[in-house]
Design a protein that fits this description.
The chain folds into two domains: about 15-175, Chondroitinase Ac, Chain A, domain 3 (Sandwich); about 175-450, Rhopdopsin 7-helix transmembrane proteins (Up-down Bundle), CATH 1.20.1070. The strands form four sheets. Strands 1, 3, 5, 6, 7, 9, 10 and 13 form an eight-stranded mixed β-sheet that branches. Helix content is about 45%, strand content about 20%. By secondary structure, it is an alpha+beta fold. The chain is elongated and about 90 Å long. The longest helix has about 35 residues, at about 345-380. It is a multi-pass membrane protein.
Length: about 475
Amino acid sequence: LLQSGLHSRLAGLKTLLLNVSRAVTRDVLIAFSPKAGPSRLNTTEKGKASKIHLPKEIFQSLSSQTVSVVVTVLNIQQLGMFKEVNQRAQVLDNTVVGITVGESSISGLQDPVQLTFAHRQLPLGVTPQCVFWDPSKGQAGGWRSSGCVTQPGDKGTVCSCNHLTFFTLLLNPALDGSTAKALMDVATAGCGVAMAFSIFTIAFCIFIRCRFRFEETVRINLGLHINLMGSLLLLNLAFLLNGGLSGRTNPRTCRVLGGLTHYSLLCCFTWMALEGCQLYLLFVKVLGIYIHHYLAKLCLIGWGFPILMVGVAGVIGSYGEYSIQNMDHQVIAHLCWITSKHLLVHYITNCGYFGLIFLFNMAVFGVVTQKSCSLQGTGAVQGHRKPWKVVLVAAGLFCLLGATWALAFLTYGTSSLPVLYLFTILNSLQGIFIFIWLVVLYYPKTKETTGSLSYIIRHDKTTTASQ
């Protein structure tokens, strides 16, 4: 590989050759750089270049006394090799590293080979992934990650693999320009429809609240639904304003718009939590609990608590223009949101806050489902309900508690694109799902048990609990 004729033909090929004795009792460390020419290393080199750590387990399993460790560094852009069909990810520095020890194939290592790919801080929305080339994948070969563990860092990414072959570091973009535009178009259309159905749902709840004589518990539930739909209406409106004005507004207006969008999102999460609390009181704390001005106090929490979080975030200057970039640092979308310098605010107030709410609401959903099934089995629930209606009621309750927002935790990594579309579509249509659910539950009000998930019997009196 070190012959001068081969080097002249393959300008992108660099080879590091190291003779190692089988009796080696320590690990081997090799440093390489994609820009360096062919060289022969007799000792361990240290520096800012990328590094390869070979465990002594490799040499203990060899039968020969002396073996050659060959590290081949390829520039695939010059060679036109190692390109997967329909590959979206970018190879770091267009560099592929091949490692061979002796002439045998080495795999199943207990102590893995470690490759440290040095790089600068990666742009937002890019996920590094350690992969190796599998010639049997597809028709022309492709990248696989099985057997490799990725440990990303600010100055480099460590790849730990249990075999020797050709390796590289793929940079997987969460979004590219066309995907970002498509998602924005889907979200904008969905938000427009969701705003209309949010208005329909609020009007419907007000109508049946005034038209029919419901007990106080049901009236409180309807008031909760109205406020939740009001927060969804505000969120969709803020998103539409954000998509239409971001990138063309002055910094102060963008900060206000970013704070409004954040506030409306936190209001949605808070009202979903209050819906879960109300279900908990109905199904677990069944005994009559009277709280003076209960709905007014819920409104104070649902609309007031997010103001505190947004106020603290605004004081430290968290809001402004947020740019989504691709791997070439080209801006593909602008938003008025929490800036890149204050992502910790996003992780705490959005991811952490919703994570706690999601866990609580799913626990409540499990209790409600279990109690409903137990009452069905004991015959406490009167009347027969069609299976499709039961499924629809359960799905509506699932949306009411904000379960679809949990998809945001799956929008990270190489498989995030389908989840991004699913997350955008489902949450844009959340208002429609809740509207259909409320119509099925509350109207028309008949003697048949169409208005609840289950009934809780106390003092020989049936009480509609889930309305």
